[in-house]
Amino acid sequence: MERSVFPKDFIIGTSTASYQIEGAVLEGGRGASIWDVFSHTPGMIHNGDTGDIACDHYHRYPEDIALMKELGVRGYRMSVAWPRIFPKGSGRSNMPGLDFYNRLVDALLEAGIEPMVTLYHWDLPQALQEKGGWGNRDTVLYFADYADTVFRSLGDRVKKWNTLNEPICTAFTGHWFGRHAPGIKDASLAVQVSHHLMLAHAMAVEAFRQSGLDGRLGIALNLYPIYPASQLPEDKKAAWFADGFYNRWFLDPVMKGAYPEDMLSVYRENLNAPVIRDGDMEKIAGSHVDFLGINYYFRKIVKSSESNDFLPMEEVRPEGAEFTEMGWEVYPQGLLDLLRRVHRDYDGPCMMITENGAAFKDNIIRDGIIQDDDRVSYLERHLEKAREAISEGIKLEGYYIWSLIDNFEWGHGYSKRFGLFHVDYNTLERSWKKSARWLKRYIEENNL
Ligand code: IFM
User: Could you tell me the maximum CA-CA distance found in the chain, to the nearest angstrom?
Assistant: First the structure.
């Protein structure tokens, strides 16, 4: 049987985020973000690493764009740092910050690379955190203003946008489990924050539609295909609960305009949250996305458990499976299962894989090149599943690899390397890994 081909306009791109690569935290009038504060708090980040210098992309972006051009990718997903645009979160916008992203976007277009811009990849201005951060409803309004400012500044050239990246991480990892900035452990607040994020997303969509700009808008959700550990009814029930917790709590408001009733009752009964004001759900329901961004890394296998407070689920680690350096299972079939599920349950939306990739040890070097065969194999197998999804009629338009270059991996600091290009953190020199060379050939051979 002949292998199906990618559609002509399918985009292979790379993906990054501002705090993880830019550095230059004190330049161009940038204000502090919650990640500056969190990473400088002792004990929060592996090895005490911070994003102060990161990959110095702020100064080296021409070099990074040249690498992408040589690689042959047609798209680049990047994020704008809110505190570069509004150092205090609101008020007057900061021209040097906008100028930086204008230069970046121009340089990308000049190199024939289409930018996809994410407005919020976790770097909230610290000044807003001091007023309550995402727990304060006013942050929603500040976000809408910030979004509007960026749309109007870059929107004549940027035609693809994500409002938020992985809102579950902001809400739950940052406010429930305290592992991300701002490092709070308060489940009720976390659920309230998730509602404010959904509202912020909706207001940004509204601002974009009102601006009259052309372009397409989405949101990047990290979703998981979730499988019960057994066919026992209680495990199936736990898997459905986990699906509500990880997937439907964010997918349903974005795609259907309403929170899933089962999770809403769980949170209301146990946490008294979220407070939803009159008109909120109408706003959320009225904010249609043009595409859904999916960040896929691994599946979850879930069994029932009574030990986990009011979350009756426990994850099971698959025996004998293949894992990345993050301890995440390599499971390409999960990508296909996830795409099929979203296609089936959410009315066949246009989708992009806004992130997929893996951290590996990267410690085998031959002829001066990192022999990351494990990453090559990872990418090849996931791309194959993407192609299979398309051949089934699923509307998948692009695949952005996380990440272009090794970078600051949040709580893990610089200890986990996801890049197609290696970064030497002493010299900041970039170099090709085998996976980057492989991708270049793949793009050529598949006419992408
Ligand atoms: O590095 C992160 C990124 O910022 C968000 N998605 C997952 C990646 C790997 O952990």
Answer: 64
| Distance from the alpha carbon of residue 228 to the mean position of ligand 1, in angstroms | 25
Q: Measured in angstroms, how far is the CA atom of residue 166 from the centroid of ligand 1?
A: 9
Name the residue with the closest Cα to ligand 1, atom 2: 409
Q: What pLDDT is recorded for position 307?
A: 83
Catalytic residue among 2, 110, 114, 166: 166
Do 23 and 84 contact (CB within 8 A), yes or no?
A: no
The alpha carbon of 45 is separated from its chain's Cα centroid by a whole number of angstroms, namely 20
All domains of the chain, ordered by start, with CATH? 3-445 (3.20.20.80)
The reply to whether 397 belongs to the active site is no
Contact 151, 99 (CB under 8 A): no
Average pLDDT for residues 54-68, to the nearest whole number?
Answer: 99
Choice among 22, 130, 269, 355 that is catalytic? 355
pLDDT (0 to 100) of residue 2: 55
Is this model's pTM higher than 0.90 or not?
yes
Q: Which residues line ligand 1 (CB under 6 A)?
A: 17, 20, 166, 295, 355, 402, 409
Q: How far is CA 30 from CA 52, 182, 396, in A?
A: 12, 19, 36
Q: Which among 157, 264, 139, 251 is positioned nearest to 204, based on CA atoms?
A: 139
Distances from the Cα of 134 to the Cαs of 168, 307, 327, 394, 395, in angstroms?
12, 30, 30, 35, 33
* Measured distance CA(309)–CA(95) in Å, rounded: 48
User: Quick one: average pLDDT of 199-211?
Assistant: 98
Nearest-atom index, ligand 1, CA of 17:
4
Confidence category of residue 3, pLDDT binned at 50, 70, 90 = low
Could you report the per-residue pLDDT of 288-345, keeping only the tens digit for each? 999 999 999 999 999 999 887 899 999 999 999 999 999 999 999 999 999 999 999 9
